[in-house]
Amino acid sequence: MANKRVPLTIYRIRDTIDGQPVRDFDDAIADPSKLATYDLIDDQDFDARLFVAKPNKKAPTWLAFLEPGFGDLAEVSDSVTNSAVLVAKVKYYKDVFFAITFGFGRNLLKRNAFKVNYGLRFALNTLYTKSLLPGEAAARVRSVDTKTVGANTLHTRRQMDSRTFFEDFGIDTQRDLLKAVAGRPIDTTVWGSRLSGGSTINVSLSLSIAELGDLLKQIEKVWKSDDYKGQFAWIDNVTAVTDPELRALLEAQLLTQLRSRSIAHLTLAPPELVEWDEIASFRFSVKRAETRHDLELDHYLDLLSGGNKLEDLQMSHLQRTHKVEALDSDNNLLHIWSLFGCISGELKLAGKTYLVSEGDFFEVEENYRRALDSYVANLRECTRSLPTTTADTTEGEYNDTAAHGSPNYLLLDKRTVKLSTRTSPIEICDILSEDRCFIHVKRKLASSSLSHLFSQGYVSGDLFHMSQAYREATRSEVKAAEQDREKVKKPGEPSFIDRFCTFSTAGITPSEYEITYAIIADWGGRALVDALPFFSKVNLRRHSEDLRRLGYKVTYKRIQAN
Fold first, then answer.
1. How does strand 141-148 pair with strand 176-183?
2. What own/partner pairs with CB < 8 Å and gap ≥ 24 does 170-176 have?
3. Same domain (yes/no): 388, 509
4. Region 4-26: what's the mean pLDDT?
């Protein structure tokens, strides 16, 4: 008689926890003293211990809402939850520990006991192999979980009503971090008809306890394979650092660089999209009496040095105690962030490149980094003249000054187009040149602001090419701007009427247009590739490639803020 199918949630226990090698089953458990333990009663080809928590009895939260209307609900007055975790050790190439949880058993494990993303690599190796024949990869995937780092971090689960190609999920391999995948494995006799993998492995198998050891050995064998690289090598381009020990090393490296002021590749920036025109100054919680127009890492370190606190700087200060505050012109508090959440830049550790961004660390594959830097370095800088400015000039003030300083420019800042197919108004651009250049302007080298800038340029360019309704609405806005500019033109300047409305609403040829990303910052002589945060480079490449595929010329412009 075949064994009944059993759903299993499997974790791979890390080889070391909190710097100590894992040698016993208890090493992965948060508090073994509070749990009942059971050992295997028969000899097996693996060893294991079962940890069981005392059943938790309590009334469900919805009971108080229902009983006034339905009376005493004795059948559900005591809801019982059970928690157990089986920790198993198998001998593969060494002693390898796994945890299999039941009920709420996940809560019995130490927070950092297991390898994060272990199940993702395992799942990809079961869904795809290097030896796949044509057609074998078809219709295997049911859902994918991703994390997209941009203006805001977006966590997404995309599900299909039936299995399909991985490509049908529209994953952007340049920006999306793959977190989990579910689908039909190639070998269904071993792994069943469906499995999923992320931080855990989830399978449903006809299995006896005696066969568990062989299953866990097979899982480790599949995980060690690099078959996934045949179709998914890109998942290793940028990977979130989830290993607690590596994260601790990176935190230590960050602290070392801050204490020694080795911050050439580190900066401070708001961890979210902000309206820069609303922000008048910044201050740090370590000394609220001092405010600055710009958010500078040097200023923060100066304050710590002045109070003899820099040498004692700890991660707890960065993560919890020390805050960054953004103020308006009346010194009202607009935003408050942890200092660590505002640090962005690159770190080097043991010859590898890591990123710190918005409170997370990421590891970058070196060939991918070189290719990205090469792309950004080869972008052409716009040759049109735009004035320098000062650090405290707002974006709106700059656009107004730049546009009115030349008869070849038309101010379109704050002129938006509303389409019935879009929930938000679309920004055409900030400045339109007479020779058909859409100039989009943003202050600061902050990832969140730049992500918005690059997206704004793409959305506007895409709609200008593809939508007649958008072109008609844009034409109306341009004509209105021409009339406003005509009223204040300087003596000797040519008429502005009909000089910028040279496009047909029936259709345009993108190759006749240029889209320029203009960034106001203290460049300090740095090239674009040296100044942009890593994820800004990723977003710039993505959007500029999309615009080039449409036929546009894409350039950038460095505007110095003194």
1. antiparallel
2. 171/144, 171/146, 172/148, 172/542, 173/234, 173/237, 174/538, 174/541, 174/542, 175/148, 175/149, 175/150, 175/538, 175/539, 175/542, 176/146, 176/147, 176/148
3. yes
4. 90
Q: How many domains does the chain have?
A: 3
Kindly tell me the burial class for residue 328, based on how many C-beta atoms sit within 10 Å of its own C-beta (0-12, 13-18, 19 or more). middle
Q: Are 126 and 191 in contact (CB under 8 A)?
A: yes
Average pLDDT, the chain: 88
Residue 153 lies in a domain: no
Q: Which residues neighbour 227 within 8 Å (Cβ) at sequence distance 6 or greater? A: 124, 125, 128, 129, 130
Of 437, 413, 453, 414, the closest CA to residue 503 belongs to 437
The string of DSSP codes covering 5-44 is: EEEEEEEEBPSEETTEE--SGGGGBS-GGGSEEEE-SS--
CA dist list (Å): 171 to 121, 174, 337, 389, 540:
17, 9, 31, 40, 17
Q: Is residue 145 part of a domain?
A: no
In tens, the pLDDT along 295-309 reads 889 999 999 998 788
Side-chain-side CA neighbours of 410 within 13 Å: the count stands at 31
- Summarised one tens digit per residue, pLDDT across range 349-378 is 988 889 887 777 888 888 998 999 999 999
**Cα 108 versus chain centre, distance:** 29
Per-residue CA distances from 173 to 47, 142, 211, 348, 362 (Å) = 41, 18, 38, 24, 16
- Whether the predicted pLDDT of 133 surpasses 60: no
pLDDT in tens, 201-227: 999 999 999 999 999 999 999 999 988
Whether residues 265 and 337 share a domain: the answer is: yes
Q: How high is the pLDDT of residue 157?
A: 83
pLDDT at 93: 84
**Alpha carbons 86 and 98: distance in angstroms, whole number:** 8
**Lowest-confidence pick of 266-275, 328-337, 368-377:** 266-275
pLDDT above 80 for 66: yes
**Total-model pTM:** 0.74
DSSP 436-455: SEEEEEEES--HHHHHHHHH
Per-residue 3-state assignment (H helix, E strand, C coil) for 207-235: CCHHHHHHHHHHHHHHHHCCCCHHHHHHH
For residues 190 and 284, membership in a common domain is answered with no
Which pLDDT score is estimated for 153? 59
> Which residue range forms the structural domain that includes residue 120?
5-137+179-227
Taking only Cα atoms into account, the Rg of the chain, rounded to an integer number of angstroms, comes to 29
Same domain, 283 and 383: no
Residues 6+ apart with CB under 8 A from 211: none
Residue-wise pLDDT tens digits, 378-434: 999 999 999 999 988 889 999 999 999 999 999 999 999 999 888 888 999 999 999
CA dist 127 and 144 (Å) reads: 13
CB within 8 Å of 57: residues ≥ 6 apart: 78, 79, 80
Q: Are residues 78 and 193 in the same domain?
A: yes
Please indicate, yes or no, if residue 281 is contained in any of the structural domains.
Answer: yes
Residue 1: which pLDDT band, with cuts at 50, 70 and 90? very low
